[in-house]
């Protein structure tokens, strides 16, 4: 009789354990699995750079009509559309990403491919994410020289207008380190505070102003 009771208890415990594991799998899948799409709004050119010596750069104001080199496009707005794959089962489970970040003022836009890694806390309600990618821009590697000898007056003014409004990034190909903090609203939806940086670390030329963008993304998990 004692042996029979022990057998029954063991069967019950095994059943409970199996049920608990079955309940954990959907939760984990909902938290970590599945592809995602995201839509964001970012400030194009912000004085924030966590990879530098300071988080915020405090630069003195310049006289009217003057601007720091590399700050020509600062203050406009980008709309970002992103797609992330489900986590891969290699290299700490990265998500492959594709992002199009379009400037609403007709200035430089960014088109990126890369990977992102995510870590959850607080039972999956909050996560941190870091990534790296390669970016192609539709803007200028180098703006045309308005002071070139021999050009017409009209051409000089046309070039000067570009020179004062557009940034020379030094290359059409840039790197895209990025990071975000996400808060999960439910199993499908999350909101992220995002930082995107674009530069080439003077690999392709001496001109490398870089640009930082900060904004908010809404994320939707795909699938069931």
Annotation keywords:
224 residues, alpha+beta, Porin, 2 domains, 2 helices, 9 strands, elongated, disordered N terminus
Description of the molecule:
Helix content is 20%, strand content 37%. The chain contains two helices and nine strands. The protein has helices spanning 2-32, 153-165; strands at residues 36-44, 76-84, 95-103, 110-121, 126-137, 173-175, 178-184, 189-198, 211-221. The radius of gyration is 25 Å and the shape is elongated. It starts with a helix and ends with a strand. The model is unreliable at 1-30 (pLDDT under 50).
Largest sheet: 8 strands, antiparallel, barrel
Class from secondary-structure proportions: alpha+beta
Distinct helical segment count: 2
CATH architecture of the largest domain: Beta Barrel
Helix content: 10-25%
Order of helices and strands: HEEEEEHEEEE
In total, the number of strands is 9
Query: What integer value in Å does the Rg equal?
Result: 25 Å
Strand content: 35-45%
CATH topology of the largest domain: Porin
Number of domains: 2
- Under the CATH scheme, which class of the largest domain? Mainly Beta
N→C terminal distance: 47 Å
Q: Taking strands numbered 1, 2, ... along the chain, how are they ordered across the largest sheet?
A: 1-2-3-4-5-7-8-9
């Amino acid at each position: 009789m004692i042996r029979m009771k022990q057998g029954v208890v063991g069967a019950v415990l095994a059943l409970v354990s199996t049920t608990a594991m079955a309940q954990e799998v959907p939760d984990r899948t909902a938290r970590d699995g599945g592809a995602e799409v995201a839509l964001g709004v970012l400030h194009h050119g912000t004085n924030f750079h966590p990879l530098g010596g300071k988080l915020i750069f405090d630069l003195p104001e310049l006289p009217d009509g003057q601007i720091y080199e590399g700050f020509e496009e600062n203050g406009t707005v980008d709309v970002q559309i992103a797609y992330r794959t489900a986590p891969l089962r290699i290299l700490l489970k990265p998500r492959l990403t594709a992002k199009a970040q379009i400037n609403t003022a007709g200035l430089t836009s960014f088109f990126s491919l890369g990977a992102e890694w995510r870590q959850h806390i607080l039972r999956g309600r909050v996560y941190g994410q870091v990534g790296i990618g390669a970016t192609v821009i539709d803007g200028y590697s180098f703006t045309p020289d308005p002071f070139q000898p021999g050009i017409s007056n009209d051409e000089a003014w046309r070039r000067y207008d570009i020179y004062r409004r557009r940034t020379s990034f030094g290359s059409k190909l840039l790197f895209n380190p990025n990071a975000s903090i996400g808060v999960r609203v439910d199993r499908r939806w999350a909101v992220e505070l995002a930082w995107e940086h674009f530069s080439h670390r003077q690999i392709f030329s001496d001109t490398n102003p870089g640009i930082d963008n900060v904004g908010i993304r809404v994320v939707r998990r795909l699938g069931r």
